[in-house]
């Protein structure tokens, strides 16, 4: 991990649960938008029965009957929405976000080569159980990629994560792991003037789960990144609606166990996750923007910074 850059924190940048989850298909050349019948058939193949809600122009939306949502006024199905083709403004993705494009080579050049975008998102789905919503979003992304074979790249806005179109089409990731793969960015920062480093995730907050962070020195950051992805996958897999004071599942003694703020999770020994090394977890404000509550994982003897408890 070699990217560097000096940035000033934007304390006004806040990350909150995403009632609408945006993903953007990016194009070097202006694409032809598929007709509504073609979109509907692509959705049928993944979701079963769907209904056209808004035929456009501007935006096309379909109701996905597989995902009913109960509101006080009744039950309505979740919707997926696709915008018309629009011009893409490269400047909408700032230098801070560009410094964290770890999944592609030459990410900045890819962004600068794109001139058009099609945005896809969900509506009326904030009340869908979070794992089902993640499934809905990832299936919608894959359907959209099928509809736009000329897509160059995909920008996952809530995670600040960029992929080439080929990476999305050929990912080979299990259905259960797709959201962490596409919707969670693990970021890396050097703290200026010190040997300290920070690894955190960005994206779990979007579906109501905690991101994780590590403030450390003396560890291989690539190993910490792997640990962060493992922790995020565990949190996502174990039915954890995250509210202040509630519990999340961690890893203890090789089995699933609840980890409350102040308890421990498996750490690293010789670069690998190990039950012999327990790292304490607690909820606190994120050290790096955007502002959000995260689960801080304190890496024992490698911990950096000041912690009120369990330093």
Q: How would you describe what is shown here?
A:
The protein is an alpha+beta fold. It folds into two domains: 22-176, no CATH class; 184-302, no CATH class. The chain is built from seven helices and 16 strands. The strands form three sheets. Strands 1, 2, 3, 4, 5, 6, 7 and 8 form an eight-stranded antiparallel β-sheet that branches. Strand 7 and strand 8 (161-164) form a beta hairpin. Helix 1 crosses helix 4 (130-147). The two termini are 26 Å apart. Residues 241-260 have low confidence and may be disordered.
Q: What is the compact description of this entry?
A:
This protein has helices at 36-47, 95-98, 107-113, 130-147, 165-169, 178-183, 221-237, and strands at 22-27, 50-54, 59-71, 74-83, 86-87, 116-123, 153-156, 161-164, 185-190, 197-202, 211-216, 248-252, 255-259, 264-269, 272-285, 293-298.
């Amino acid at each position: 991990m070699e990217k560097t850059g000096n940035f000033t924190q934007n304390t006004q940048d806040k990350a909150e649960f995403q009632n609408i989850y945006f993903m953007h298909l990016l194009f070097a050349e202006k694409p032809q938008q598929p007709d509504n019948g073609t979109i509907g058939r692509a959705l049928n193949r993944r979701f079963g029965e769907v209904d056209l809600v808004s035929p456009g122009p501007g935006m096309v939306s379909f109701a996905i009957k597989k995902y009913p949502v109960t509101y006080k006024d009744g039950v309505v199905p979740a919707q997926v929405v696709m915008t018309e083709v629009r011009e893409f403004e490269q400047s909408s993705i700032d230098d801070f976000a560009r410094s964290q494009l770890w999944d592609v080579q030459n990410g900045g050049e890819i962004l600068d080569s794109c001139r058009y975008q099609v945005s896809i998102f969900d509506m009326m789905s904030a009340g869908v159980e979070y794992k089902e919503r993640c499934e809905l979003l990832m299936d919608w992304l894959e359907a959209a990629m099928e509809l736009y074979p000329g897509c160059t790249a995909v920008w996952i806005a809530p995670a600040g994560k960029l992929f080439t179109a080929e990476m999305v089409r050929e990912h080979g990731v299990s259905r259960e792991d797709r959201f962490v793969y596409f919707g969670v960015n693990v970021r890396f920062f050097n703290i200026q003037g010190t040997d300290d480093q920070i690894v955190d995730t960005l994206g779990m907050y979007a579906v109501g789960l905690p991101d994780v962070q590590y403030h450390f020195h003396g560890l291989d950051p690539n190993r910490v990144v792997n640990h962060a992805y493992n922790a995020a996958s565990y949190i996502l897999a174990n039915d954890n609606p995250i509210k202040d004071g509630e519990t999340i599942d961690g890893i203890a003694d090789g089995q699933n166990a609840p980890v409350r703020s102040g308890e421990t999770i498996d750490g690293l020994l010789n670069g690998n996750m190990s039950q012999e090394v327990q790292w304490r977890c607690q909820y606190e404000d994120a050290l790096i923007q955007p502002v959000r509550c995260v689960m801080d994982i304190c890496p024992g003897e490698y911990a950096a910074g000041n912690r009120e408890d369990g330093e």
